[in-house]
Amino acid sequence: MALLQNGDSIGLISCSDGLRHDDVRVIHKIEQVLENLGITVVKSAALFRDDASPFSGSPQMRASELMRLFHQSEVKAIFDVSGGDSANQILPFLDFNAIQCAATPYIGISDLSVINNAINTCASVPSHHYRIKNLAGHFADSQTELFQRYFMEDEHDLTFEYRWLRGQQMNGVVIGGNIRCFLKLAGTRYFPDPTDKIIFLEALGGGPARMASLLAQLDQLSVFSKCAGVLLGTFSEMQKKELTPSIEALVFETTEKYNVPIAKTEQLGHGEDAHILPIGLPIVLE
């Protein structure tokens, strides 16, 4: 069954750093695109940042606004348009029992990886790694087609291409997201069990030294020794600047002792042409 149908409503919210007020045109563009698809937008009060603050509200207020969207039965999916640093502030104020009952898909990338994984870990509700602001970006037409195909048609096949760095097959439930933000969950009850999971990793900023450090932390958390495979998205700064060692080399070296399968895609991450990946659902790569 399709996640969204003509006539449905979706929610927009900023659970991480709030949008700047000059982003209002982006929100208007998203609303126009969705209206053309027959989708109504319900805008949260936690969307734009307060004056002299990077936040769209206090942690309690942002959590309350997110729960309000989960409680609205007419809202069939919640798309988070934010990013930055502050999403993990809201986690203690979420009602995971109510989220589990609502089972409304939550969709976001980057810092929202903490919410994607926390919701799946604590409420067993899948989420999706996708940036709805792409509907207002340079690839708006192709992104609109992708949105319609993935969210509004009765098929959820993977749409991204990938290549193998080690192995030729992996299957399992997906966890992870932005590597820096995902690791904010380490040592908390929100961190997912990596056993037999596919760990997805991507990054916007950071060079080889930072990535090596973050990969070492994942290894020390026994993620690579327990997981079923590693799926790498784009590592924007490293790839754009062609920094060495490459992310492929760093991951290959860190995981060599486990011989874990590794795949790499250029279609998942922070790019305006990025595709969609389910978090908390099983996938097969072969």
Structural class: alpha/beta
- Average pLDDT taken over every residue: 98
How many domains? The number is 2
Q: Per the principal axes of the C-alpha atoms, what is the gross shape?
A: globular
CATH topology of the largest domain: Rossmann fold
Please state the CA-atom Rg, rounded to the nearest Å.
18 Å
Distance between the termini: 25 Å
Q: Summarize the amount of helix as a percent range.
A: 25-40%
- Poorly predicted parts: none
Question: How many DSSP-defined strands?
Answer: 12
- SS element count, helices: 10
The amount of beta strand, in percent, is 15-25%
Q: Quick one: CATH class of the largest domain?
A: Alpha Beta
Strand arrangement across the biggest beta sheet = 2-1-3-4-5-11
Q: Please name the fourth-level CATH homologous superfamily of the largest domain.
A: Murein tetrapeptidase LD-carboxypeptidase, N-terminal domain
CATH architecture of the largest domain: 3-Layer(aba) Sandwich
Structure characterization notes:
- The protein has 286 residues and is α/β, with parallel strands linked by helices.
- It folds into 2 domains: 9-152, 3-Layer(aba) Sandwich (Rossmann fold); 163-285, LD-carboxypeptidase A C-terminal domain-like (Glucose Oxidase, domain 1).
- Helices cover 32% and strands 20% of the residues.
- The protein is built from 10 helices and 12 strands.
- The protein has helices spanning 24-36, 59-71, 96-102, 113-123, 140-152, 179-182, 208-220, 223-226, 236-240, 247-255; strands at 9-13, 40-43, 75-80, 106-107, 127-129, 163-166, 170-178, 198-203, 229-235, 262-264, 277-279, 282-285.
- The strands form 2 sheets. The protein has a 6-stranded mixed β-sheet, with helices on both faces.
- The longest helix has 13 residues, at 24-36.
- The model has no long low-confidence stretch (mean pLDDT 98).
- Keywords: Carboxypeptidase, Hydrolase, Protease, Serine protease.
- It comes from Sporolactobacillus laevolacticus DSM 442.
- The active site is at 110 (nucleophile), 202 (charge relay system), 270 (charge relay system).
- This is Peptidase.
- InterPro entries: Carboxypeptidase_A_C_sf (IPR027461), Class_I_gatase-like (IPR029062), LdcA_N (IPR027478), Peptidase_S66_N (IPR040449), Peptidase_S66C (IPR040921), S66_fam (IPR003507).
